[in-house]
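Notes from the 1:1 (GR / supervisor)

We went over the backlog. Supervisor wanted to see one worked example end to end before approving the batch request, so GR pasted a single chain during the call. The sequence is below; no edits were made to it. Supervisor asked that the structure be written out right there so they could see what the output format looks like.
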Amino acid sequence: MRSEKGRRWCWIALVVLYMEGVVVAEDPYRYLDWRITYGDIHPLGVRQQGILINGQFPGPDIYSVTNDNLIINVHNHLPHPFLLTWNGLQQRKNSFQDGVYGTTCPIPPGKNFTYTMQVKDQIGSFFYFPSLQFHKAAGGFGGIRILSRPKIPVPFPEPAGDFTILIGDWYKTDHKVLKTILDHGKRLPFPDGIQINGLGRDGAKFTVEPGKTYRLRICNVGLQNSLNFRIQGHKMKLVEVEGTHTIQTTLSSLDIHVGQSYSVLVTADQRAQDYYVAVSSRFTTQILDSTAILHYRNSRKTVSGPPPPGPTTDISWSLNQARSIRTNLTASGPRPNPQGSYHYGQINVTRTIRLANHAGLVDKKQRYAVNGVSFIPADTPLKLADYYNIDGVFKVGSIQDKPAGRNIHLDTAVMGADYRAFVEIVFENRENIVQSWHLDGYSFFVVGMDVGIWSPASKNQYNLIDAVSRCTTQVYPRSWTAIYVPLDNVGMWNLRSQFWARQYLGHQFYLRVYTPVKSYRDEYPIPKNALHCGRA
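Structure output shown during the call:
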């Protein structure tokens, strides 16, 4: 039996540990139960078959706080296999939960799968969407917001309200027809319009109180087009980009490229009436546009006049705006320490990876490639094949780390990379359209972008002080964008185009971040409920 003295010392030790902050309760759990079904939707005023989550289109917002555990049970009631991916959630040490076919077996019709994820050391605005087939063209997407923990300072006063605004180009054509067009090796036609929170022109309404300030989390969940966002008669203050608090700049309009997310603050400081929220396509010959309504609660007057015009094809304006978006070095991120305490510009780059995208035909069918390789899925998710050491599913090194000419060949492209390496990736866009690149599992520093051809001398113009850290970046036509990535997350990670038809036809590959040390410190084991398929 433990002595009284021993019990007393044990109690004192616990008190000291508690006072020192060593004893920490387990991070909270949030449980969600989602039914995936088809249902009627009318984004552009025409009835379509859409993908609903618990009967909703768009799907429900996910509300969370830094380090929360998300337990999301997804029941697939579609007649097709289904997966959701979480655009911007880093899935620390846990690429099994990423929800793309290279990491996760599809949920069969009539079955369910429970995602178990932690939003470890993250804050900010993101979204989720279906990753298989061409389901994204039918909906199934929704917003993700990760709030700071209560004692972590945020560099702006708490807003009076917080709106998720999901914008994107949209087709009236059924997603299965669009998929068939791509499967036949043809290009898709130009989209038919723009949806705003699942609605067409003047369908969405955001109600505000005069004099109060609101946070708008704007995500481009579309299929291909960059969009410009603006509000009639109001300025916007940029405060956050995909989990990074930014230097707060005042904007009259904002370019949001496909797959990107931004937070702005808007103050209801104008005369009490209704105002247009305008969204239009960028860099397109045919301009798509749509509107929503900013409604003052005491308004007695509807919107008047034309919606505010936006920029159209001017690239230099957009490029200059992108360069102006920088990290607020003194603001706290998900932890109390300032965002600027990580001096990425002082770390030696261990490897430079150059990625060039291009289009072409293979066997008379349209394909898209990176460094000459057009990705084709294997019969087994790559992460499962890697975990179980299944030979013949993929080959590390099947895509090179520099451009390889204009010829295209098909392969299950996987590039190897060392855990804890610090790499430079240069996206070289030799085509005449804007590209949008996303890397699962990471945020990266956008250190430079410019028109023309990248060369080692281009490093002289890199921002090595306060480049914004994000997970999706644009590359302008016949231009380049350079990023720095600390490879601190072991796993199999999808690096892809957010132009969804291009992604579907090969514009993607997987980055295998590997360590020979098998430790739960570096990577979690395969989930007990993991689905198995293919050769696994």
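Supervisor's comment: The helical segments are 4-19, 175-183, 315-324, 382-387, 500-504.
Batch request approved.
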